[in-house]
Amino acid sequence: MQHFKTYFSMNLPFHGDEVLIEGPISPNRIKELDFHEDLTSFRPPLEQKEALIEIAELPEGRINVICDNQMIVGYVTFVYPDPLERWSEGKMENLIELGAIEIAPKYRGAKLGKHLLQFSMKDEAMEDYIIMTTEYYWHWDLKGSGLDVWEYRNMMEKMMNAGGLIWYATDDPEICSHPANCLMARVGNRVSQESMQQFDQIRFQNRFMY
Length: 210
Prior knowledge:
Organism: Halalkalibacter hemicellulosilyticusJCM 9152
Number of helices: 7
Shape: globular
Radius of gyration: 17 Å
Number of strands: 9
CATH superfamily: Gcn5-related N-acetyltransferase (GNAT)
CATH topology: Aminopeptidase
CATH architecture: 3-Layer(aba) Sandwich
Pfam family, one: Acetyltransf_1
Largest sheet: 9 strands, mixed
Distance between the termini: 29 Å
Protein name: Acetyltransferase
Order of helices and strands: EEHEHEEEHEHHEHEH
CATH class: Alpha Beta
Mean pLDDT: 93
Keywords: Transferase
GO molecular function, one term: acyltransferase activity, transferring groups other than amino-acyl groups
Structural class: alpha+beta
């Protein structure tokens, strides 16, 4: 499967000024940009920047970012699922994972996450994919947001819905380990019924729950 990456960008108003959404961006572009010091949800900032560069180098890897001048203040990643997780077991070329989305705390509350996802799905290439994401409460910034686990889950679900991702059932043990965890996905309009059946088989591996 060919992975088409057509760069585009748009400006967004933010507190009387503007920020730029752009992508999918190249590894060199990421290297050129500064990385906000408060983007720490998954790794320390410098390590996360390196991780984004590595993803951008992959054939299927896509990084879309929000920039304030020359600084990345938000990002979303799309990449094949981790080889150690069940989502990679079918070796589906058209199943990619929204692996991470993060907005620096100072830039939250302006719906930038929703705009970033909507921007990502405007890319025509996304219609060839099933885009999935696994939401785990232990990755959520409950302390910084002041929200409880269900309020945060509701916020995350609304943000994902803005990108066309909806809730899907699964018997995956890690997701089932807490009721706030969930699987969400968006099915592109060029995805075949055969691919959907394969995705269903990955979602349910306990035949009594299928």
